[in-house]
Each structure stands twice: as structure tokens, then as C-alpha cells.
Amino acid sequence: MNKGIVFNLNFEEWRQIRKNLDQTLMSYRFQKENIVMIQKLFGEMTEYWRDLGENAPVDLSIWINRLFSDYIFLTATGMSCHFLTQEFNNQCSGAQKLSVQQEAIEFSTSITKQSQTHREAIQFFILAPEFVWRFALRGITNKYLENRVKFYQQLDSIIEKRLEQIANGNILKYDALDLMIQTEIDHQNTLGTESKLPNRSINVANIREALVTVINGSIETVPMRITSFTAMNNRSNTHADKIGNLVWKSGTQFIINSAAICHDPKLWHDPEKFNPERFLLNPSAKDTFFVFGLGPRTCPGKHIAIANIKVLVALLYRKYSLELLDKDLPIKQKFVLINNCKGAKVILQKI
Question: What pLDDT score does 155 carry?
Fold first, then answer.
């Protein structure tokens, strides 16, 4: 788990991967292309809704997940997985079904399953004591470790294939993978390596760890950023700290109860109530509302996620009025390590 940027305690390695991610995600061209991509995918989704019937119930939790899954893989790797098309085919009759290449279906099925299992593994290793995963549940541990190998091999093959294409004269694009490759090349050149693809000095592992962060940290979390998407955050101090009369030795693990802080009645009036105006009435509330984390390890995709959510909400409400199919039915949420919405059926009426 001491890899990537989420749990990495190797500061120098973490800093380089984080720098690569920041340079990629904060570039103007990348952010501009992302907004265009969201608009394009929203247009595709609304065409499917039209073909399914104007007043047919729509489960937004499913469709928004499919939209962002398509979006993440397109912007991360430049590859299309056709999740929206597959969802349309699942809901329509035989005559309406659209053709999707079997290779794309197999790729999207395998990599999403691997990504989901990888996220489950993170929950397992965080919540289960070491004795449990090392001895008592060794079979589950082996399953998660084997999945990680397959997941990493799949991502490595994507990266190696792209490196080969670039070496053969294929022009660099503006998806995250190509920009991370360019950032890694620039980094190696500053070290005097003179990287020219396909040079062995290109650190595929660094690119892969950044790609894992982009994929795992986005597919099911972007739509849920209206609230704390994790129940807790963990941090570790690199040096001994003294707080009050207590001394915490180096390497102490701290657990931050994000869910409790974001629902604390001492900090929030009616914390269970959906009230966006609370931020206008209490500007200082932003210091206790940290859905993207705080400090140097804050989510690197924070600004892109905020922009995407704003664009999607604007596109949705500009075109439709929404009404819950059953106003008395509470929205189902699954909250273990990641907060997920499971079921949000609405009736869409064109404006």
C-alpha cells in the first residue's frame, strides 16, 4: 500500500508522483478538454434517454456513474469503454440495441472489475487487523493481491502501448496519460537523462501509480462530492509532535472522523438537512467541510471535479425538470470507506 499518493509514506516518491499529477490535471488544455468531454457525453446520454422514452423513469445513480466512467477512461487513457452505450443496451429492446465492439466490452468489463476489487482491497487492508489478513483470511488476501497484479499489468500494457505509439511518431494528445508521459520525460531530462521514447529511463511505475489514483479516485467518487465521500481519513506524522501535554512519536497513525465532523451540530445547523445556502450564511464553514481533504495531500483532482459537477448540474437543469419517482422513498446510500448512492429514480420532463 506504500505506493501512489494516497497511502505513500515515502515523501520523495510521493512528491514526484504528486507533481506529475498536479502538472497534468492543472494544465489549461487538459481542463478545457475535460469540459468539452463532459458536454459531449451528456449529449450522448440524453439521446439514449430520448430513445428509451421521454417519460420513462431514469435512475440517475446508474447513468451518472456510467457517464463518469466513460469520462474517466477517455480523459485518463484516451480509450473509450462505451459504458453509456452498454447501459442503453441493457435497458432497451433487442431492435434498439447498438453495436459495440466485443474487444471494448471485454476491456471495460475487466478493468472496471479490477479497479473495483482494488478499491475493496484498500478497505479490507485498512479495516482488518494485520493478523486477520495475514493468517485468518489468507484466501481473501491472496485474491486481492492477485487482482492487484492483473490490474497493474493491464495498466502497464496500456502505458507501454502508448509509449510505443509515441515513439513511432504518434502525436501526444491531451489526455492524462499522454500528459503524464510528457511530464515524466521532462523530469528525466532535468536529471540529465535525455529521455527519448522509448527510453528505459521512463518510469512506467510512476505513471501507473498516478493512473491508478486518477481511475480509482474518480469513478465512484466525483458524483458524491456534495458530501464527505469517505467516513474517515488517516494521516501519519513524520516527526514527533507535541500537542498540549501529549507527545506523539514519529510514525503515529491518526484517524480523522470526516463523517462526524461534517455532521457535527456544533459546527452545522441542521447538519442532516440539504441546505446549500448554509455556506452563504456562514462563510467560515468551508474550514470544516473538507470533502477533498486538506493540506498538501488534498485531492489533486479537486478543481476538475468541482468544475465537472457544476457543468453537469447546469446542463441537466437547463434541459430538464426533475421529479423523484417516489418522494417518500429515501435515497439509498452505501457508506463503508466510500460513500455511494444506490438508487435515485426520477422522471425527466423536457423544459
Answer: 93
Q: What residues does each domain of the chain span?
A: 11-229+291-350
Asked if residue 92 belongs to a known ligand binding site, the reply is no
- Our measurement of the distance from residue 202's CA atom to the centroid of its chain's CA atoms, rounded to an integer in Å, reads 25
* Pairwise CA distance, residues 217 & 238, whole Å: 25
What's the DSSP call for residue 189? H
Burial class of residue 254 (count of CB atoms within 10 Å of its CB; 0-12, 13-18, 19+):
exposed
Task: Assign 44 a pLDDT band (cuts: 50, 70, 90).
Answer: very high
| Cα–Cα nearest to 155, from 202, 220, 214 | 214
Work out the average pLDDT over 322-349: 76
Residue whose C-alpha cell reads 483470511 in the numeric block: 137
Q: Which homologous superfamily does the CATH classification assign to the domain defined by 11-229+291-350?
A: Cytochrome P450 (1.10.630.10)
Number of Cβ atoms within 10 Å of the Cβ of 39: 13
Cα separation of 315 and 210, whole Å? 30
In the numeric block, the cell 441493457 is attached to 90
Cα-Cα-Cα-Cα dihedral sign, residues 263, 266, 270, 276: negative
Residue 140 and residue 164 in contact, taking contact as beta carbons nearer than 8 Å:
no
275 vs 285 pLDDT, higher one: 275
Which residues neighbour 135 within 8 Å (Cβ) at sequence distance 6 or greater? none
Q: Which residues contact 290 (CB under 8 A, 6 or more apart)?
A: 228, 258, 261, 262, 298
- Is residue 335 predicted with pLDDT exceeding 80? no
